[in-house]
Specification:
It contains eleven helices and ten strands. The protein is α/β, with parallel strands linked by helices. The strands form two sheets. Strands 3-2-4-1-5 form a five-stranded parallel beta sheet, sandwiched between helices. Strands 6-7-10-8-9 form a five-stranded mixed beta sheet, sandwiched between helices. α6 links the parallel β6 and β7. α6 packs parallel to α7. The longest helix is centred in the last third of the chain and has 16 residues. The chain starts with 10 loop residues before the first strand and ends with a helix. 31% of the residues are buried.
Length: 287
């Protein structure tokens, strides 16, 4: 088959990189990296492993949440005049990683922007979980504060779709204990080192997750992907006291309309029902 080489535009290319196995990178991704003027990454030392493997030498710029605006200022001219690539340490950029402000800047300035898809630990974990994935929602890293984690699990437990969470190693056992208290005997898949030779996927139930981790004698390090079965009761989600309190807390920082939208996305509850509950709560508070 004859390969058709398309011209490359100047601008920002969001390129997915392997999540473990270095061979899981697309031909198009390699082509973009080779033609990049600048490669924006999280940790240059980490990204060099992949680039050295591919025989690519380019200028690397470290991007983090705390320096994103500074980096945008430094590379703004390059975005307009050359090809700039955004990668993460592993997988698809922007998924629980920096880059949101950079993308917003490109959109605002009408700078060419495109995505080069590839490996994703979220999709990989879902595919290997053995849990229904016709409908799912990704919630990122479980909050560090126990109260916030409890609130997240309390709300998501009522939803019918499968849930996906990231967990750091040092909070894994705590998170599994919280999941057990909220999700009971629902199915769960605990995934680490996906696509690597030492890939581990523990398929069990929430109430036995901690026990299974100990049984497998796993060294708890790195990041984990947790896939949890959704509620089988389609009518399970209702506006209870905790959801009411969460809605009011959020409305202290955002407008009522935005607060309702946030809680609606988290719970799947009716916007009208949430709006009515919030108005009634506010009315009682001001009475």
């Amino acid at each position: 088959m004859k390969k058709i080489k398309l011209p490359l535009n100047n601008g920002l290319y969001i390129v997915a990189t392997p999540i473990g196995n270095l061979e899981d990178i697309s031909l198009r991704a390699i082509e973009i990296l080779k033609n990049s003027n600048i490669i924006i990454c999280e940790n240059p030392k980490h990204s060099l492993k992949l680039l050295n493997y591919l025989g690519i030498k380019k200028r690397l710029v470290a991007l983090h949440d705390y320096n994103e605006e500074e980096i945008i200022g430094k590379i703004s001219k390059h975005l307009e005049s050359s090809l700039v690539t955004l990668i993460s340490d592993a997988g698809s950029p922007l998924i629980s990683d920096p880059g949101y402000k950079l993308v917003q800047y490109c959109i605002k300035k009408n700078i060419y922007l495109t995505s080069v898809p590839g490996a994703s630990s979220v999709i990989c974990a879902l595919q290997n979980s053995g849990i229904s994935i016709n409908s799912f929602c990704f919630y990122g890293f479980v909050p560090k504060k126990k109260s916030q984690a409890n609130e997240l699990f309390h709300i998501t437990n009522k939803l019918s779709g499968t849930k996906v969470f990231f967990s750091s190693s040092h909070r894994l056992i705590t998170n599994l204990q919280l999941i057990q208290s909220h999700f009971g005997n629902k199915k769960i898949a605990i995934c680490k080192e996906l696509t690597k030779y030492n890939e581990v996927i523990i398929r069990t139930t929430a109430d036995k997750a901690k026990e299974e981790i100990n049984k497998h004698n796993q060294k708890i390090k790195g990041e984990y992907v947790l896939v949890v079965e959704g509620s089988k009761d389609n009518n399970a989600a209702t506006v209870d006291n905790k959801i009411e309190d969460s809605l009011i807390k959020i409305s202290e920082k955002f407008s009522l309309t935005d607060s309702v939208k946030i809680v609606h996305k988290l719970t799947g509850l009716s916007k009208k029902e949430l709006y009515d509950v919030a108005l009634e709560k506010i009315r009682k508070k001001n009475a």
